[in-house]
Specification:
Helices cover 73% and strands 8% of the residues. The chain contains 5 helices and 4 strands. A 4-stranded mixed sheet has the order 2-1-3-4. Strand 3 and strand 4 form a beta hairpin. Helix 2 runs parallel beside helix 4. The longest helix has 136 residues. The termini are far apart.
Length: 273
C-alpha cells in the first residue's frame, strides 16, 4: 500500500492548525476564565476571611465590653449596696441616739419633777415644822426667839476653839467690808449691841458690823466675813433629822431589817447648841 505523503502532510498541517486554533480561541479563554474565577474566588475567600476576622474582632470587643459592663455593674451594685447599708446603719444609729436622748431627757424630766416635788414637800414641811417650832419655843422661852438667836451667836463667839478664832480674826482683819450678820428675823437693837460688844471683846478690836434679814435661814443666824462663816440654824438639826429618817427608811426597805436600838440606848440625831 502506498502512503500519500501529501495527504499525511495536509492532515498534519490541518491538525496543527486545529490545535493552534483550539489553543488560541478555546483553551486560552478557558484558562483565562479559570484564572479569573480562581482569582475572584480567592479574593472572595480573602474578603470572607477579612470579614470573618473583623467579625471575630468585633465579637471579642463586644465580649470585652460586655465583661467590662458586667464588672462595672457589679461594682456599682456593690457600692450601692454598701452605701445603702451604711445609710441604714447611720439612720439606725441616729434613731437609737435620738431614742436614747429622748429617754435621757424623759428620765431627767421625771427626775427633776420628782426632785422639785421633793423639794416643795421639804420646804412646805420645813415651813410647817419651823412655824410650830418657833411657836413652841416662843411659848416656852422667857425671851423672844430672836433674842435667843443673838444669845446663841454671842455664846458661839466666846466659846470658839483656837483655830476657828484665829481664822475668823484674820478674816475680820483683812476684810474690806463690814462683817455681815444675817438672821431669819429682825434682831432687836439690844441684841445687835450685844453682838457688836461680843465681837469687840472676843477679837479686842472695833469690829464694823452690818445686819441683814435672811428668811431662808429658817430659824438661824450667821456671821460671814471675807470667806469665813460662823453659823447656827435649825436647818442643821433638820438635816441630821432628815439623814436619820432616810437611813431608817432604807433599813426598813431591806428584806432583813436590822434590830432597832434598845430603849436604854437611843440614837442621837439632834445635838443642842
Amino acid at each position: 500500500m502506498l502512503i500519500d505523503w501529501f495527504t499525511v502532510g495536509a492532515q498534519t498541517l490541518n491538525f496543527l492548525i486545529l490545535v493552534w486554533l483550539m489553543k488560541r480561541f478555546l483553551y486560552q479563554p478557558i484558562l483565562h476564565a479559570i484564572d479569573a474565577r480562581e482569582k475572584r474566588i480567592a479574593a472572595e475567600l480573602a474578603d470572607a476571611d477579612a470579614k470573618k476576622a473583623e467579625a471575630q474582632k468585633e465579637r471579642e470587643e463586644f465580649r470585652r465590653k460586655n465583661d467590662e459592663f458586667d464588672q462595672q455593674r457589679a461594682a456599682l451594685l456593690s457600692k450601692a449596696t454598701d452605701e445603702a447599708k451604711a445609710e441604714r446603719q447611720r439612720l439606725l444609729d441616729e434613731a437609737r441616739k435620738a431614742a436614747d436622748t429622748a429617754s435621757s431627757q424623759r428620765q431627767e424630766t421625771l427626775k427633776n419633777d420628782a426632785l422639785n416635788l421633793h423639794q416643795a414637800l421639804s420646804r412646805r414641811t420645813q415651813q410647817e415644822v419651823f412655824a410650830i417650832a418657833r411657836k413652841t419655843l416662843s411659848d416656852l422661852a422667857t425671851t423672844s426667839l430672836e433674842e435667843r438667836f443673838g444669845d446663841v451667836l454671842t455664846r458661839r463667839l466666846r466659846t470658839m476653839d483656837g483655830p476657828t478664832k484665829a481664822g475668823l480674826a484674820e478674816a475680820l482683819k483683812t476684810a474690806a467690808d463690814p462683817a455681815l450678820v444675817r438672821s431669819a428675823f429682825d434682831l432687836p437693837a439690844e441684841q445687835r449691841t450685844t453682838i457688836r460688844n461680843a465681837l469687840n471683846e472676843t477679837f479686842a478690836a472695833d469690829i464694823r458690823v452690818r445686819f441683814e434679814t435672811k428668811p431662808d435661814l429658817v430659824c438661824g443666824i450667821e456671821l460671814t466675813t471675807n470667806g469665813q462663816k460662823l453659823a447656827w440654824s435649825i436647818a442643821d438639826y433638820l438635816a441630821l433629822l432628815e439623814k436619820g429618817v432616810g437611813e431608817l427608811l432604807q433599813e426598813k426597805d431591806k428584806p432583813e431589817a436590822k434590830a432597832e436600838p434598845k430603849p436604854d440606848q437611843p440614837k442621837a440625831i439632834l445635838n443642842g447648841a
